[in-house]
Amino acid sequence: MDIRGLVPEWIRTLTPYPPGMPIEELERELGIRGSIKLASNENPLGPSPRALAAVAAALSSLHRYPDGSAFYLKRRLAERLGVRVDDLIIGNGSNEIIELVVRTFMRPHDEAVMADQAFVIYRMVVQAVGGTARIVPLRDYTHDLEAIAEAVTPRTRVVFLANPNNPTGTIFGRAAWESFLAAMPRHLVVVADDAYAEYVEDPNYPDTIRERDGRVPVVSLRTFSKLYGLAGLRIGYGVAPASVIDAMGRVRQPFNVNALALVGALAALDDEDHVARTLAVNREGMAFLVEGFRRLRLSWVPSAANFVLVRVGAAAKVYQALLRRGVIVRPMEGYGFTEHLRVTVGLPEENRRFLEALGDVLGDGAP
Question: Partner of 46 at 20 to 30 A CA spacing, among 152, 269, 312, 348?
Answer without folding.
Answer: 312
